[in-house]
Description:
Blueprint: H1 7-16, E1 20-22, H2 24-32, E2 37-42, H3 50-64, E3 68-73, H4 75-80, H5 86-106, E4 114-118, H6 126-136, H7 141-147, H8 160-175, E5 180-184, H9 188-197, E6 207-211, H10 237-245, H11 258-271, E7 274-276, E8 279-281, H12 284-293, H13 298-317
Helix pairs in contact: 1-2, 1-3, 3-11, 6-8, 7-8, 7-9, 8-9, 10-13, 11-13
Amino acid sequence: MEITVSPEEVARLVSDASVEVLTEEELLTLINERKVRAYIGIEPSNVLHLGTLVACEPLIRLAKAGFKTIFLLADIHGWLNDKGELDQLQEIAKRNQELLQKLVRAKGVKDSDVEFVYGSSYQLNARYVTELMRLSKLVTASEARKAMDTISKRDVMYKVGSEIYALMQCLDIGYLGINVAVGGMDQRKIHVMAREYLRKLGYTKPVAIHTPIILGLDGKAKMSKSLNNAIFLDDGEKEISEKIYQAFCPEREAENNPLIMLVERVVFPWLGRLEVGGRAYLSFEEFLADWRQGAVTARMLKESLTESLCDILSRISSA
């Protein structure tokens, strides 16, 4: 696939789908040189939820611009994070891959433009383990543990496996030849560690692109199945409607409002518009102004958001 927009426009599109790029100058250089090789790691612990759409958006925009993109199905990472036995996680990873393939097709990306890699396909081989040992000699246990603060399950947070997880995620970037790493803001410390240490092993210093963490429907914590506050990519219309109806959504408030986040980070990137009460909003800023003024009520928003999310998930399921 050939790039059909300018390098500056590609960089802008990626930046718009992110909250931080380390650094924008480095990313633009890679785009100009047409050397982008980007990835995101997906830990296969359950059915994917709406947060996946947000996390994958920069990667998808790079794929649409003609660059090589990789989804790492991190089954061994999930095993280390006590998300299940390895054989179980590999089965979940297969189902995740099917959903991710539908997701990228629904966004107009060809199957040939993305690659799916399983961690277990290379992370146990001798060369990888040797590189992991080399990295372990550079990174302190404290650094590795701090990098996992927002990633580890609570019951594995202080186990050595958590520190190995951090080193592996860092190494994956170099080992797979990645120069653009995409992930949520909870991945930031690991990406910063990768930017510092991979060069010392002879790998390229990667650009790091970070996306926002989507609040769960309760407005209390990030979207997660374990907290029963998520909309999953295989939810039906009835489930979506019930979940949105019950969701936390204070009138006129935009900060820490999960439904406003979904409008900004899911609806507009996917549909380019939001229709509320017979009015079509063509930009998030336009909608936000009316929301803050009370011209759009929570009830109106919930009705509209339900329709929009059903549309998006229908596009994915039928792709």
